[in-house]
Amino acid sequence: MAMMKTDPNTDSKQQQIEIGLRRTLARARWQILAKVFYEGLEAAAPYDGSIRLFNGFPLITLVAVEKEPGKPNGEESNVWYQATCQGSNDVKVEIRLPAGKIPFAEILISRDSTGAICIWPSEKILGYWCLQNKPLFNGKVVLELGSGLTGLSGLIVASTCNPAQLFLTDGNPACIDNLNLILARNRSRFISKDIPIEARQLTWGQQEDYENLSGFIDVILISDCLYLENCHKNLEQTIWSLLKRNGKCYIIAPSRNKSFEKFANLASKRFIVQHEENYDPTIWSMHTTYLDERDKYQYSPDRHYPLLMILTKPSY
């Protein structure tokens, strides 16, 4: 059978496009950080495409519903947004995004403040995916690692999937403060008071933060937390400690320079690992559209298309 030959010039051109997109995306991320520092979170965080050069995966929409009163010291007020999901009337949770500037010292001191800057695309895709797979969470103890400022995926599970209990966790204390305000508001409006929910500070690898949850969690949710490869070992250890036997961890994240694949390889030493590229027909359809016209959409699958990884803790 004759082997198909590829045009080296085409391969070279494609590589140049990918390199150019990575450089452009890197510049854009620094621009959005600068925008947060100088203009505040409200200007940067809630809009798809405002920080990533393409307006893709419009699965969850955020609409401003309330602006808190300004503070006496002149600081900008915070804004509440209602999240709604494409094709579903089930989701009506509200999240709070601080409009004020992030102190530069906080970014430097915190191990990872990216969750305190904005809602990343993978978080919205994870929330949408959870809504399409409600039985996975019904009656389960669910914990979200790296919930960031909003815990959007966890809130969607709490409001639509009837979990037995829910934990929203993050290593940044500012995120926990905001999550507690969000939980209090949604408790009175959209989430059953019969579901125990807690926001708690949890740093990966620090067992004292989650010792009382060891072997207690049925399902863990994670979105876009694999890019810091020096944190992979602590993240894997934390997942292993938290999960029950046969418990599952669902991770939505882009490949991003093979960080996804590297974590999968690490996790495979103890977990049963599955990873899927085509895990939802709607998301896949959008992906193929962007892929066909990647120049038009400034679309780089390595950075923009989240993959699904499923970790299962063995019963033995």
Give descriptors for this structure.
single chain; 316 residues; alpha/beta; Rossmann fold; three-stranded antiparallel sheet; 10 strands; 37% helix; 23% strand; disordered N terminus
Structure description:
The protein is of the alpha/beta class. The chain has a single domain, classed as Rossmann fold, CATH 3.40.50.150. The chain is 37% helix and 23% strand. It is built from eleven helices and ten strands. It has helices spanning 8-39, 41-44, 104-109, 121-132, 152-160, 173-187, 232-242, 259-267, 281-292, 294-297, 301-304, and strands at residues 60-67, 79-85, 88-97, 141-145, 165-170, 197-201, 217-223, 243-254, 272-276, 306-312. The strands form two sheets. A seven-stranded mixed β-sheet has the order 6-5-4-7-8-10-9, sandwiched between helices. Helix 6 (173-187) links the parallel strand 5 (165-170) and strand 6. Helix 4 runs parallel beside helix 5. The chain is globular and about 50 Å long. It starts with 7 loop residues before the first helix and ends with a strand. The model is unreliable at 1-6, 32-52 and 103-117 (pLDDT under 50).
